[in-house]
Amino acid sequence: MSDALTHAVDAILDRGDLAHLALFLWACAATGLAWFALRELSRSNRRFEEFVTAVAYVERLLRNRGR
After folding, report:
1. What pLDDT shows up at residue 23?
2. Any idea where the domains of the chain sit in the sequence?
3. Cα distance between residue 26 and residue 18, in whole Å
4. What residue ranges are annotated as transmembrane (predicted)?
């Protein structure tokens, strides 16, 4: 078992597949982080829009009350 594992690792290193694996993992991590950041930005924008809508509603109430 140990010889087979060593041979497999040597084959990966000889062919340069380890570099491709590292690049793939980096790309997956970067994509995941970008997706997470965009999702959080979208949620933040939605909360801000709700806040602005609520402020506008209160402002309309106060304007109508003064009439």
Report:
1. 87
2. 2-66
3. 12
4. 18-38
What is the Cα gyration radius of the chain? 27
Mean pLDDT by 10 residues, the chain (67 residues): 74 75 90 98 98 97 84
Q: Report the distance separating Cα 19 and Cα 67, nearest Å.
A: 72
Tokens, residue 65: 């009350």
Cα–Cα distance between 32 and 21 in angstroms, integer?
A: 16
pLDDT the model gives residue 4: 76
Contact by Cβ (8 Å): 54, 48: no
